[in-house]
Amino acid sequence: MKENLKDLIMILSQEEERKKLLKEALKAELRSAAKDLLEEIALAERKLFCEQNEDVCNGYYSRGLDGLFGKIDVRVPRTRDKVFRPFFLEPYKRTSYELEDLVVAMYQGGCSTRDISRTVGALIDGKYSANWVSKITDVVQEKVEAYRNRPIKKWYPIAFIDGTVINIRRGSVDGEVVYIVLGIDEDGYKEVLGFWLGGSEGESSDIWKEILYELQKRGLKEPLLFIGDGLKGLSGAINEVYPVSDFQSCILHKVRSSLKKVRVRHRAAVGEDLKRIYRQKDEASFKAAFNEFKERWHTLYPEVTKSWEADLEALMTYLKYPEGIRKTIYTTNPLERFIKEVKRRTKVIEVFSDPEACSKVVYLVAQEMNEKYGKRAVLEFSSVKDELLYIRRGKYGPVETGSQELCTVSYTQTS
Question: For the chain, which residues make up each domain, given as ranges?
Answer without folding.
Answer: 2-146, 152-396
